[in-house]
Amino acid sequence: MKLRHSAQTDIGRSREVNQDAYGVGDPLPNGIQLFVVCDGMGGHLAGEVASQTAVQTMLATFPNVVQSDIPKALTTAIVSANQAVFDRGRGNMGTTSVALLIFKNVAFLANVGDSRAYLIRNNAMRQITVDHSFVEEQVRAGLMTREQASQSKIKNIITRAVGHQREVQVDVFREPVQAGDRFLISSDGLHGFVDEATILKTINTLPFEQIVPRLIDLANGVGGYDNITALLVQVDELEAIADNDPLLETLLNQPLTGPLRSAEPITEEFELPVGPTGTAPMPVAGMRDDETQQHVPITASGRLNPAMAAIPTSAARPTPTTAPKPAGGGLSGWGILGSLVVLAALVGVLYIFKLPPVSLLFPDTTSTPNQIVVAVPSLMPTTQPTTTLAPITNAPLATATSGISPTLQQPTPTP
What we know:
It is a single chain. This protein has helices spanning about 45-65, 70-90, 135-140, 145-150, 190, 195-205, 210-220, 245-255, 335-355; strands spanning about 1-10, 20-25, 35-40, 95, 95-105, 105-110, 115-120, 125, 170-175, 180-185, 230-235, 270-275, 290-295, 400. By secondary structure, it is of the alpha+beta class. Strands 1-11-10-7-8-14 form a 6-stranded antiparallel β-sheet. Strands 2, 3, 4, 5, 6 and 9 form a 6-stranded antiparallel β-sheet that branches. A two-stranded antiparallel sheet has the order 12-13. The two termini are about 50 Å apart. It comes from Herpetosiphon aurantiacus (strain ATCC 23779 / DSM 785 / 114-95).
């Protein structure tokens, strides 16, 4: 088999640090070569450390674990990267990961997070991996359209990350390859801003060595709001394999993990960055990026409350800050109760002794003159609306086709 590849990462035009990383392993004696892209997160420099640690660990681990069980080897490499990143950050940093290898004319791909792998074949492009993100789950549940998801202010929230927790769930995909196939693996700094039709046209029309630099330029051309990484692999020639090759039969029938399974129920509040970036992926449990943070409520089922999808980010609850209590300035629960008792007694005195009424709390311009107005909050329980979520479906993802005029996906506007 003959492969060629082209790769590039770019800081973009809005970030101070490039938290993306990619790696290309040396070809092994059996011809296997590993390609990896990671998109880190977790505050200043931590995301950079996370992505680089993950790439280095995967490239170092894979040659020692790959035998005939390719899906298991890919999973083991990412699990090892997860442990290495977690040990360094103790849950305070993480990274996405997408990996590709081709063996015996079969491509194996694995992913965690929202970095993607695409297959380009016969002038068409198809996304192979499935994003681990809340908007993806909303789309699969029928609660959001693909277009709404691409423009959503919370599209950066992901449900899985490498290194954020002690354990990680990896999805592995298998795809028989043909001569001329191209595989694109990328961070969301590319596919989050440049639409698939434009990516496809670029790949189909430019010489191979010009494709990746052009994709980077396209992402920067619409603002460069995030780090950008693209790695393109082309299959120039297939491996000659006998029809009854037992290893090929094994590869085609090995069990895979994935595709996407529904995330575990989550009850925490998740944080996401707002501002000009708006696309930096954030894992569960509120990992931070370098941008301003706001909270987005998540329902107990682990899905984003559908009512929040249309609310501008500025309407979300701001991040709480911890400050010392002012000395003697506030009212405790007993103090409030005592005040209500005194207020009730005063009203009773006015009623019994027929004293001239006064406004106790605030004047009511709709009432008669000198009428007593007492503001009492309602003690009746309110009924909370409930939302019924549609079941997750396994509908195929949209496929970009040729002949579509190229357009660039605009970045999410900043409120």
